[in-house]
Amino acid sequence: MKSTPKLISYTIVDFPSETHMELGTRFFDEKASEFFNKAEKKGLLRWRMNRVWNKQGSFTLSQVYEYKDEKAFKNCQIIVDEFYDKYKKDFSLINAKIVSSRAITLLDYVSEDY
Fold first, then answer.
1. Structural domain tally of the chain?
2. Could you give the CA distance from residue 13 to residue 98 in angstroms, rounded to a whole number?
3. What are the residues whose beta carbons fall under 8 Å from the beta carbon of 106, sequence distance 6 or more?
4. Residue 72 lies inside a defined structural domain of this protein
5. Strand, helix or coil at 62?
6. At 17, which CATH number?
7. Per the domain annotation, does 61 fall within a domain?
8. Residue 63's domain spans which residues?
9. Could you give the count of Cα atoms lying within 13 Å of 13 in the half-sphere of its Cβ?
């Protein structure tokens, strides 16, 4: 049986332009495995990045982090902080506004086709 994540972190990343968003997307594409490989060892079950498509004229990505439990969340926050510190210069060039929310999974229906 697969582990159902109990804690979710949902991050919205707003960019001032398409160019900034492309730069941010390229950065994450290049660095994603470095981040995920470390975080997975600490209990991150899934991480995905999405392009928000229903806001015309906006340049927005969302990131969803699914954690095994509260301990995994806390341990992964250290990795997130280290990652942002390591690439502080890159993040300043991306010039994005980042807002995160935290949630606890209450219901989780998944299609058999998923």
1. 1
2. 5
3. none
4. yes
5. strand
6. 3.30.70.100
7. yes
8. 7-103
9. 21
C-alpha Rg value of the chain to the nearest Å: 15
φ, ψ dihedrals at 103, nearest 5°? -145, 160
Domain contains 70: yes
Give the list of residues 6+ apart from residue 23 with CB closer than 8 angstroms, or none.
93, 94
Helix axes 70-86, 18-41, angle to 10 degrees: 130
Question: pLDDT tens digit string along 37-93?
Answer: 999 999 999 999 999 998 788 999 999 999 999 999 999 999 999 998 999 998 888
pTM of the model: 0.85
Q: Is 83 helix (H, G, I), strand (E, B) or coil?
A: helix
C-alpha separations of 49 from 1, 63, 70, 89 in Å: 25, 4, 22, 21
Residue from 7, 5, 13 nearest 102 by CA:
7
What does each C-alpha distance from 93 to 58, 63, 67, 80, 84 come to in angstroms?
Answer: 18, 19, 29, 18, 13
The residue whose two tokens read 């490989």 is 37
For the chain, helix, strand, coil in percent to 5 are 40, 30, 30
Is residue 98, in this structure, part of any structural domain at all?
yes
